Amino acid sequence: MFPWVLLEFLLFCFATNYGVEASHEVYTSLQSLSAVNVKQVYRTGFHFHLEKNWINDPNGPLYYKGFYHLFYQYNPEGAVWRNIVWGHSVSKDLINWKKLEPAIFPSKTFDKYGCWSGSATVLPGNKPIILYTGVVDENITEVQNYAVPADYSDPYLRKWIKPDNNPLIVADESMNTTAFRDPTTAWLGQDGRWKILVGGRRKHRGIVFLYRSRDFMNWVKAKHPLHSCANTGNWECPDFFPVSLHGTNGLDTSSLMEENKIKHVLKVSLDETRYDYYTLGTYFPQKDRYIPDKNMVDGLRGLRYDYGDFYASKSFFDPIKKRRIMWAWANESDTVCDDLRKGWAGIQTIPRTILIDPNGRQLLQWPVEELETLRREKVELREKKLKKGEHVEVKGITAAQADVEVTFSFHCLDKAEKYDSSWDEHDAQKLCSQKGSTVQGGVGPFGLLTLASHDLKEYTPVFFRIFKANSKHVVLMCSDESSSSLEEGLYKPSFAGFVDVDLTDKKLSLRSLIDHSVVESFGAGGKTCITSRVYPTLAIYENAHLHAFTNGTATIIIEKLDAWSMKSSRIMLICMHSTTALKPSE
Ligand SMILES: *[C@@H]1O[C@H](CO)[C@@H](O)[C@H](O)[C@H]1NC(C)=O
Ligand SMILES: *[C@@H]1O[C@H](CO)[C@@H](O)[C@H](O)[C@H]1NC(C)=O
Ligand SMILES: *[C@@H]1O[C@H](CO)[C@@H](O)[C@H](O)[C@H]1NC(C)=O
Ligand SMILES: *[C@H]1O[C@@H](CO)[C@H](O)[C@@H](O)[C@@H]1NC(C)=O
């Protein structure tokens, strides 16, 4: 991704707060300003971030010889987007991480101006290879490069080589060279050719270009892109993979089982809205065409992985546990000046497994099971009734760093508010901003008040509201940041999405991962997910509280609530040099 607007913010921040001239010279020196005496109340306990500096897109996740590898766009010199290299961390369990030296950094003519996002493919013989976007000049001309490990016997894959036959792919004259980036993991066709997608645009049409190669070195652009859609702007960070219609295993990217047993997912990150959208559809390998299913919508009005802060996601197939795992970048919602002060910016969401919903209409996402190893003290509520306007505090856990799973039930839906057909069914966020947690309803609003201060001056409510439409019920899920912090000038949207759920059993479940400055929530078993970044000033550390609530006329029952204090994960922040390397068995 490329944050075109960031530079402007930055100049503004310097000009107003530091009273200096906005030149590159000054800018570089300010990067080291990151203050030492800042109270780090917004540091996450179990979400991946770095002690210092900026990170954004997850890149090239892969599994190799006992380790999960995560690369990410990283500025080693400051807490703003700049000087981007491929940061590199490894893990045995996707939760505790060791940071290594950057894997790929600008050094050659084909990436001198930037080493941007890309993906890894594990070639036959267990040989990982990375494809990434290199920027070759100040006009941001983008090309596609490759890198290979210097030493395949090193399970850390510490050193990467960028051979001299780079770049592998350059844009042809018909293409926009400043919107040509983020190669996908390759898949191998039955015709013996490797295939990849690269994101881009033609005028205002979003496109994923398709390239084919027999030897991974010589790539030829296919006459037809795999897919495109008018009026969606630049498509970044595409991801394309199969999902199984039967069973609960993920599939390798090259897996092409019989057509009626799989679907494909095409995800693109829309530069224009800064959200990740996907369609489910059928991939026809002979013709290399992808046709989204009926009722699927490309772009702005389509399905989203997450209806909150969640961008540039990337998935990979875990060959050990046979699952597809996905990460995304959740950026900060504070100001650039705040980021410079606290010295770091950007987290990765908790890795999620991806499966197709048995209804075939969408995906289900769920935090990887390894996260549960961090659970400590547990509190439970069972069969607790909540009447109109009632709260119950969940006491006995660290509410600022917790994992909460709750199932709500209700006796009937007669009291559901009427759904007004004039509302924009694609603008859940607008509806949530009008009907927040304090606006009384019929069935709901009910859910959790996370990161709540003692006096409820600050809280981030995550809740449902059920409406009655003509022939069905409509379920809205919100993660409303508008009261999350007394601090002004922060980005505090009322994030929301609809939940495509069958209510015949009169139940709705919610899981929230609460971690100081992030609340990552999974509605109805992962049908609708929302990630919020929030910066409470009162609801911090032991002063943070957690409540379950309803404010509708219908009684809601907390059928089952389990909440755990979460231990912090080990994210070894110190760069591990070869001399101090830990043994792979540790
Ligand atoms: C960048 O674009 C400008 C304006 O089109 C052009 O004059 C210049 O030669 C370009 N630079 C490179 C390195 O291509
Ligand atoms: C090429 O892409 C860039 C980046 O998205 C955009 O700013 C520019 O307008 C595009 N140029 C054309 C001719 O469409
Ligand atoms: C419930 O709704 C009423 C009316 O909208 C409002 O005044 C009250 O603050 C709400 N209560 C809670 C706990 O949100
Ligand atoms: C994250 O920050 C907010 C507030 O500055 C912006 O509105 C978002 O566009 C941004 N998201 C991404 C993916 O850059």
Structure description:
InterPro entries: ConA-like_dom_sf (IPR013320), Fructan_Metab_Enzymes (IPR050551), Glyco_hydro_32 (IPR001362), Glyco_hydro_32_C (IPR013189), Glyco_hydro_32_N (IPR013148), Glyco_hydro_beta-prop_sf (IPR023296). It holds the Pfam family Glyco_hydro_32N. Keywords: Glycosidase, Hydrolase, Signal. Residues 1-22 form the signal peptide. This protein has 586 residues and is mainly β. It has two domains: 36-367, Glycosyl hydrolase domain, family 43 (Tachylectin-2, Chain A, 5 Propeller), CATH 2.115.10; 373-418 and 429-566, Sandwich (Jelly Rolls), CATH 2.60.120.560. A hairpin with a 4-residue loop joins β18 and β19. The two termini are 35 Å apart. It binds 2-acetamido-2-deoxy-beta-D-glucopyranose (4 copies). One 2-acetamido-2-deoxy-beta-D-glucopyranose binds at residues 176, 178-179, 201, 203, 234. Residues 389, 437-440, 549, 551 line the site of one 2-acetamido-2-deoxy-beta-D-glucopyranose.
Structural class: mainly beta
Strand content: 35-45%
Count up the helices. 4
Cofactors and ligands = 2-acetamido-2-deoxy-beta-D-glucopyranose
By oligomeric state, this entry counts as single chain
Helical proportion, percent range: under 10%
Residue-averaged pLDDT: 92
How would a crystallographer describe the biggest sheet?
Answer: 7 strands, mixed
The count of β-strands is: 40
In CATH, the architecture of the largest domain is 5 Propeller
CATH class of the largest domain, named Mainly Beta
The unreliable regions are: 14-36, 574-586
Shape: globular
* CATH domain topology of the largest domain: Tachylectin-2, Chain A
Radius of gyration: 24 Å
CATH homology superfamily of the largest domain: Glycosyl hydrolase domain, family 43
Number of domains: 2
Distance between the termini: 35 Å
